[in-house]
Amino acid sequence: MRWEELDQEPCSVARALAVVGDRWTLIILRDCFLGVRRFDQFESRLGITRHVLTDRLKKLVENGVLAKVPYQEKPLREEYRLTDKGRALHPVIMALVHWGNTYMADERGAPLVHIHKPCGHQMHPVTVCSHCREEVTARDVRIEAGPGWKTTQTSPSDRQSTNR
Amino acid sequence: MRWEELDQEPCSVARALAVVGDRWTLIILRDCFLGVRRFDQFESRLGITRHVLTDRLKKLVENGVLAKVPYQEKPLREEYRLTDKGRALHPVIMALVHWGNTYMADERGAPLVHIHKPCGHQMHPVTVCSHCREEVTARDVRIEAGPGWKTTQTSPSDRQSTNR
DNA sequence: ATAGATGAGTTCCAAAATAGAACCTAAGAA
DNA sequence: TTCTTAGGTTCTATTTTGGAACTCATCTAT
């Protein structure tokens, strides 16, 4: 399968990854959440080549994750800002930061910490059920085919009981 | 910067992505959470080439995300199972599924839905603060340098106010 | 007026990664 | 004896990256 065909897949992970799933895109988005907006800031912070950065930013704009907003004219200069769709990726980034902090930190501890402004405390993200508000673990969740699952292929519940 | 140097970065996202951030790895992990364990199952479900699948599985094992467990001898056959470290990526996958369901679904609706077994309801993941248990949005969170941040570079709070 | 500097790219080539197919090996089945 | 299965490895052709240099319009300093 070619990467570009991935967004045809009837799986939300595949579709999401078709947009954000390559080597650089999530790091670019991390920087967006840190307030970075301009081409040369991304370039100098990331150590990414200009060619690839151009391409990734363009794709993020095409997919509505970032928007190009002019911040001056003569000459026209534009910066990249998160859209609502882009900001909705924040839980993904937070979850990655937390996982990295937990499992990939060196002896000095976490390089980045999250502060929850409303309560003022250092925090890490906790995932809870939207219905009962109980904390969710991998074993508590069953994945089922939803309305958008193609009927021409095996449903996920046709397979073994999910996880473990 | 080469991809392999990324795990040296003092950023948990970068370190996390050094392990799970390439085109195929998160899709492999999605299948792990669906109960897939064997080489040929991954291959036929994913449309990935065997060469790349071998490489990704090996890296996931090296990084302690998956473990090779023999399920028969003569001939030796091994399957790949999530470790605790791997299962800890579940919030990342759930967040990606939810984002994909919300923003990338077609007119028929979500291809995958989550059921929270303890309460029995369809759910989506909600991220709350580990301290006050209030729901967290991107604007509620400030990112600060933690103990593991290298002092030789600019701290994230030296920059503009985070997000927005 | 001329010579940089800035911001945001584009172009070019070499190196690395990927897709697709064929081949390998050990054991068991027909 | 040949076929099938599980889990790879090897090969070549195509894509994607990395790295460096070039472009272009506008400011700024000399």
UniProtKB/TrEMBL annotation, chains A, B:
TM annotation in the entry: none
Segments for region (Disordered): 143-164
InterPro entries in alphabetical order: HTH_HxlR, WH-like_DNA-bd_sf, WH_DNA-bd_sf
Record keyword Membrane present: no
Comp. bias intervals (Polar residues): 150-164
UniProt GO MF annotations: DNA binding
Signal peptide: none
This protein's record includes keyword Transcription: yes
Entry keyword set: DNA-binding, Transcription, Transcription regulation
Boundaries of every HTH hxlR-type domain copy: 11-108
Source organism, top-level taxon: Bacteria
Official protein name in the record: Helix-turn-helix transcriptional regulator
